[in-house]
Design goal:
6 helices; elongated
Length: about 170
């Protein structure tokens, strides 16, 4: 049953955002969207897109595993973790899962040359930022109390600090 809950949350959230919607955009917005020409000049940009996609997928997968193993829950807001996850990439930024999906979307935009996917990535980032400010963080403060408040003070929301703070650090 736990496996089914995890699979459902993965299919409904990161897969929908980073695979299904971009695929729909590519198929249905072709007439008004941009695409890279077939040219060697765009090979470096496409290569960067692939690298970003792979990095984003890897980061998102790592976060999903941490939610299951450490957090004892899923990435879905309707089936959240019961333990605060402050290890792995969560030691550097409070939202690496969203960073992973956003990085994947930016990589897709660069790979395909799709302005529409780039706009989708921008919209995804904006909506998630507002969601975290208005809903997610107040909910985490309520669920985890002082431990989340300390974590929030030590770990930035999106952009990692150059120097790692003490939260989640192993001796």
């Amino acid at each position: 049953m736990k496996l089914l809950r995890h699979l459902l949350s993965i299919l409904l959230l990161p897969m929908m955002m980073a695979v299904v919607i971009p695929r729909w955009i590519l198929l249905n917005q072709a007439a008004g969207d941009t695409r890279w020409p077939r040219s060697l000049a765009v090979v470096p940009v496409r290569t960067l897109g692939v690298v970003l996609m792979m990095a984003g997928i890897g980061l998102a997968a790592w976060c999903i595993m941490l939610f299951a193993r450490v957090g004892k829950g899923t990435l879905a807001p309707w089936d959240p973790t019961s333990e605060l996850v402050a290890v792995g990439p969560y030691r550097y930024t409070r939202n690496p899962m969203i960073t992973g999906v956003a990085t994947t979307l930016i990589g897709e935009a660069l790979l395909t040359g799709s302005r529409s996917i780039g706009l989708w990535a921008l919209g995804f980032i904006t909506v998630n930022h507002l969601y975290f400010l208005l809903i997610e963080e107040p909910g985490l403060e309520q669920r985890f109390g002082k431990s989340y408040e300390e974590y929030k003070r030590a770990v930035p929301r999106w952009v990692p600090r150059l120097r790692k703070e003490a939260v989640g650090r192993r001796p």
